Fold this protein.
Amino acid sequence: MKITRRTQRLFRLQQVLFYLLLITVIILLATFSIDHNRQFDWTANARHTLSDSSLQLLNGLQEPIRIQVFVSPEYEYRRAVVDLIKRYQRHTDKLEVSYVDPNFSPDLVREMNIQQQGEMVVSRGEQSQHVLDLSEQSLTNALISVSRQQQQWLVFIEGHGERSLFEKNNFSFVTWARQLENQGFKLQAQNLVNTPQIPANTAALVIASPTQDWLPGEVELVKDYLKNGGNLLWLSDPEPSQSLSALSEMLGIEFIPGTVLDPTSVSLGLEDPRFVLISDYANHPIGQAVASVSLLADAVAIQKTEQLKQNQEWNILNLLSSQPGAWVETTPINQSNLSSQAYDAGADVSGPLTMGYILSRQLAGGEKQQRIAVIGDSDFATNAYIGNAANLDLAMALANWLAADDKLIEIPVKTSVGTQLELSRTQTIIIGFGFLLVIPLVLLATGLGIWWRRRRR
């Protein structure tokens, strides 16, 4: 091909046009990347993506929330803090974020009682919450806490052997109480004998399986509280105190005498039929908040009375239902006869059984709804069992529903998917011999074969 001056000019023009188009494409891509941010999380459990619950909370924010991040520019985890905040900012413009260098703001650090690098203070109005660890659960819980329109007080009745909020043992509510406080609830334990008046700002009253009798005057205080539209969470166990029969009669419920046994739990390896597996929930915000099976221990079944069935004022839902094979064992149970228990058609009550009811009704004026939850077990929320299955989700959902915060449900902790490789003894021996003998022998044979072929040439 003969190259003329005209050909050279066309070639140079083609090069100029190519570089101009290349620069234009680069500028357009840069502009597009600034205006349209797209990220893809390919981790096994999507640990870099906000959960649906967090997204729902962010989409529902009506007022600005301020986040002050106390972190130095040279802090090794500053990038992790910034990345976590940006995940939230991508979904809402209601977050006002500011970064404060603690080294240059000592007065503010003392005023806000900052304890460590990377600490965040989430605030709205006079409400504030400190976040000490870099997790979605902690930050979202703080946003939930300050986004509540008013302080929610849960009053736990004490003085009759109820579950304690403060005693650190397996059968107290310390873990649950900590989670409630993390989500902005205020907790108070009250003895009705010492303080015979339920506070007016009580979001819900909690009766947690009393083992001693109540005084008639105490029962009347609770009944008056309910007549005035108060919310109640009643957690009961087998053989409930008969002194509360007037309260159950008022609500229109009955506790079926005996203990619920569930053979399904034994078939799944729990070894104790008193563990009741709950996988059937009502189509209700509480049921939707519970992600999987919950586990009740040593529970009592509940049934409606004719009075409640005929009462058109209350909206009644069967919240928790046992497996069909469960039954109420009416004979006394102890460790010696536990394994020999079997359903007796003449004496026992067959399943499926109701383990929890929720009642709601509109109060006068229609602006407020009264809510009551009666659960046939209190063990599920204790330190010993709240970490099992979805028990914590159930406990938190009950509290949020009773406080009329239906959308503020527990944010699950995102953990890394287990990557531990477990090998049997035989597999270990095979892999060991493979690396120590088989692979070296194969390499040696290959080398000898190549050497022999080259020598023959």
Residues 151-402 form a domain with the Rossmann fold fold (CATH 3.40.50.880). The chain has two domains: 52-144, 151-402.
